[in-house]
Amino acid sequence: MGIDDRDDKTARFCLVTATLTIEEYCKRKFLRKQYFETIPIINDYFVLPLREYPVREILLVCNENFGMKNEGIIEPEFYRPMIGNGYNEEIILELLLSPSLKPYQLKAIKVNYIAGYVVNPHP
Hints:
By secondary structure, the protein is an alpha+beta fold. The protein has a domain at 32-115. It is built from 1 helix and 7 strands. Strand 5 and strand 6 (90-97) form a beta hairpin. The longest helix is centred in the N-terminal third of the chain and has 18 residues, at 9-26. The chain is elongated and about 50 Å long.
């Protein structure tokens, strides 16, 4: 449907309810999936939105400068997940990179993360 339920609790409730109804009808559970996403960095803007939602865990962040010398893994102390508050849970919405990475002139970041709803049989 293209509804973004990050700020609307009613929309989130409707989407979670619809998810549970579909899973019950199909007799299958939706699984959380692992995603790989390459995010371009434009104009030194170091707050990077993640495409899939809801993000549960960030597994790996890499600098992807397409063969340049400073390509590689970015250690967790150089990024921080931006967290929003859902129904009794913390959900990652964006990735905030440290300003100390600016001298490296990053072109893109590759992020490996897990996203999807956690199904709770007893709400």
